[in-house]
Amino acid sequence: MNLFLVLLLAYLLGSIPTGLWIGRAFFKTDIREHGSGNLGATNTFRVLGKPAGTVTMIIDILKGTAATLLPTLSIFATSGVHPLVAGLVAVVGHVFPIFAKFRGGKAVATSAGVLLGYHWPVFLLILLAFLVCLKVFKMVSLASMFGGIVAFIYAIVRYFMTSDWLLLLIIALLAGFVIYRHRSNIQRIQNGTEPKVTWL
Q: Can you give the pLDDT at residue 199?
């Protein structure tokens, strides 16, 4: 029973459509009808501005962190769910949210939150990689994918040091998922038509 409850709560946490709810509550705007139509932080930044985008990004990160920490709570001690598995379920919820007709974000912030909850050094590493790539190339999509690749390389190195195979597997899945969700962005990058941020 605890196993089912942990996975359900993780999915529901991930399903919180932060950008959609902020847009409706404070701007009377459905961000799915503007910009890229995506519910993630990047489109929230573009459509609703920096404050709303920042809040969306923070909450989307913390969704992943909270879901990852669920199995560590004493009330779920007998669930048998690994924190990374709960985090992965939250990412699935973010991408396919039940509260937004299963049309969600691209998994970047929530994936980062999972790693923050499980192994914070890799979170700091991908954050640094993201910011450096964003500063140089001015493309959020490219920076997001680069962060995923850096995380995967880190997981490989850590595997040979600690045999943490589950971290390697989950990061591989998350990085692959992030890159897959950005396939249209990859095409625009190749065509030279990918939007660039103007505030860096």
A: 66
